[in-house]
Specification:
Largest sheet: none
Distance between the termini: 42 Å
Mean pLDDT: 95
Low-confidence stretches: none
Helix content: over 70%
Number of helices: 12
Shape: globular
Order of helices and strands: HHHHHHHHHHHH
Structural class: mainly alpha
C-alpha cells in the first residue's frame, strides 16, 4: 500500500507532466514536510523531495530557488549514502545542468566531471548513466566553444549508447545529430553530413517521414548544405521540413 509520501510524489509527477507547476510545487512542499516528519531530516527520501521541488523551480527558470535545494539534497545524499553512490552523481548532475544555465561553466564542469567519475566507478564504464554525464559535458563544452573536448565526449557517449541500445535506436539518432552539430559549427561538413543522414534515416524509420523530430534533422542538414554552398539541396530540405511542421501544427 503506497505511503502518504508516495501518494504526494505521484501527484507531483502528474501535475509536473501537465505543466501545472503551481500545483506541483504545492504537493512537492507537502511531500518534503512528510518526508522530514516520517523519515527524519537527513534521510535520502528528504533529498529526493528536495530534488523534486528544485526540478520544478528549474523548469520555470527560477534557478536561484532551485540551487539551494539541489545543494541540500547533495549534502544529505553524501552523508547518508557515501560520496560514491549513484544518487550523489544524480545530484551533481542536476547542479551541473543548473550551473550551465547560470553561465558558470567552470562550476558546471566540476559537477559533471565528479558525476562522471562516480558513475564510472559505481556503474561501470559502459553504463547509460555514464553516457548521460558524457553528453552533459559535451553540451557544456559546445557552449564553451571547446570543440575538441565536446567531440571527444559526444563520440564516447555515442559508443556507449550504441552498445546498450543498438545502432538504430532513437537515442542514437539524437546523439548522431548532436555530434554532427559540432562538426557543422566548425565547417567540417564532410564529417557532419553522414551523421545527419544516418540520424535522419533512423528517425524516419522509427517515427515515419512526417514526424517533427524528422523536421529537426532536415533543418540542421539544410543549414549545413546552405553553408557549404549547396543551395538547391538546402532549399529542398528546408521546404520538406516546413511541410512537416505545417502538418503537425
Amino acid at each position: 500500500m503506497p505511503s502518504l509520501w508516495d501518494e504526494l510524489n505521484a501527484k507531483v509527477s502528474a501535475f509536473y507532466k501537465q505543466g501545472n507547476y503551481s500545483k506541483a510545487i504545492k504537493f512537492a512542499k507537502q511531500a518534503l514536510d512528510v518526508a522530514k516528519q516520517t523519515f527524519g531530516p537527513d534521510h535520502p527520501s528528504v533529498a529526493t523531495s528536495l530534488n523534486n521541488l528544485a526540478g520544478i523551480y528549474k523548469a520555470q527558470s527560477e534557478l536561484s530557488d532551485a540551487e539551494p535545494l539541489y545543494e541540500q539534497a547533495l549534502l544529505i545524499r553524501k552523508n547518508a549514502l557515501g560520496p560514491d553512490h549513484p544518487a550523489v552523481a544524480d545530484s551533481l548532475n542536476n547542479l551541473g545542468v543548473l550551473y550551465k544555465e547560470l553561465g558558470d561553466f567552470f562550476e558546471a564542469e566540476t559537477m559533471h566531471k565528479q558525476a562522471l567519475t562516480i558513475r564510472e566507478k559505481s556503474l561501470g564504464q559502459d553504463h547509460l548513466d555514464v553516457a548521460i554525464s558524457l553528453n552533459n559535458l559535451a553540451v557544456l563544452y559546445d557552449s564553451w566553444r571547446k570543440f575538441p573536448e565536446s567531440e571527444q565526449m559526444h563520440i564516447r557517449a555515442l559508443q556507449i549508447i550504441e552498445k546498450n541500445l543498438g545502432r538504430h535506436h532513437v537515442v542514437v539518432a539524437t546523439s548522431l545529430n548532436n555530434l554532427a552539430g559540432i562538426y557543422k559549427t566548425q565547417g567540417m561538413y564532410e564529417k557532419a553530413e553522414p551523421l545527419y543522414q544516418r540520424a535522419l534515416a533512423i528517425r524516419e524509420k522509427i517515427h515515419g517521414p512526417n514526424h517533427p523530430s524528422v523536421a529537426i534533422v532536415l533543418r540542421n542538414l539544410s543549414t549545413m548544405y546552405k553553408r557549404a554552398g549547396r543551395t538547391d539541396e538546402a532549399q529542398k530540405l528546408k521546404d520538406r521540413a516546413r511541410a512537416i511542421e505545417a502538418k503537425n501544427k
